[in-house]
Amino acid sequence: MKKKILFLINPHAGKSEIRNYLLDIIDLFTKKCFSVTTRTTHPSENNLKEDDEQYDLIVCCGGDGTLNQAVNEYMKLKSRPLFGYIPGGTVNDFAASLGLSRNPLEAAEEIMNGSVFACDIGLFNEKYFTYVAAFGAFTEVSYQTPQQAKNILGRIAYILEGIKQLPNIKSYHILVEHSGGSIEDDFTFGMITNSSSVGGFQINNKKDIFMDDGLFEVTLVKSAKNLIERQMIINSLLHQEADSNFIYTFKTDKLHIVSETDIPWTLDGEFGGSLREVRITNKNRALNILTV
């Protein structure tokens, strides 16, 4: 009896180049003795249903936002099939961290020939994220950049949108409680990650980052009081200096973050809501994904 694949596809991801590979990918799955059901994803709809537990494998094809939606729906299933991911977006941070091929057909072959990796994911209040929850400077760029601009310009579209936001950088007074203590200060940026790539850029100390250790990597950037401090902070970020007086970095399995005002959050590049209080928990090895 043939095994069954549910193939979730976002045909608009990236520059829509995934469309050129679809028939070859489906042919590959079929030759590996799988029965394939295809389903186009819609951002405003539930793309996974309760009876999708019948499949042996669910494969998601799209960008980080498509993956985020699929994982949130996947985690609601009582009996979860194996999971596969074919990156097809503009940035594809999660795929880069796992070492997945950016070529869709090669990524499909990796799924067919790969092994199961039990990967950590994050729980942000009641929403899941695969690799990053962030607030503050430039985090709105990912979900405010128009899809058409992403398709035409690629990563340059994010940079252009970021430059537009420079005059509007805000400061937030925040209390951060984590497993190793607490911090209270004014911050312009914060990110909680489970990834060696964020925004398409590789993190220098990626040898210390493990996607199955039950720990997040946390970066909090303090607010600058003057232009000199702002330049020092920019230099620290550009050189990824973890021991800067303006940047807190640490590892933790959970956080409780409280602010005096609503803070807009981004989860895997998608809008995560404007909130004054959030609880973030590392769900250790919760996603069984096929990798190289």
From TrEMBL:
InterPro entries per UniProt: ATP-NAD_kinase_N, Diacylglycerol/lipid_kinase, Diacylglycerol_kinase_cat_dom, Lipid_Phosphate_FormReg, NAD/diacylglycerol_kinase_sf
Domain DAGKc, residue spans: 1-128
Pfam families recorded: DAGK_cat
Gene3D superfamilies in the cross-refs: 2.60.200.40, Probable inorganic polyphosphate/atp-NAD kinase, domain 1
One GO-annotated biological process of the protein: phospholipid biosynthetic process
GO MF assignments: ATP binding; ATP-dependent diacylglycerol kinase activity; metal ion binding
The protein's required cofactors: Mg(2+)
Enzyme Commission identifier(s): 2.7.1.107
Stated family: Belongs to the diacylglycerol/lipid kinase family.
Protein name: Diacylglycerol kinase
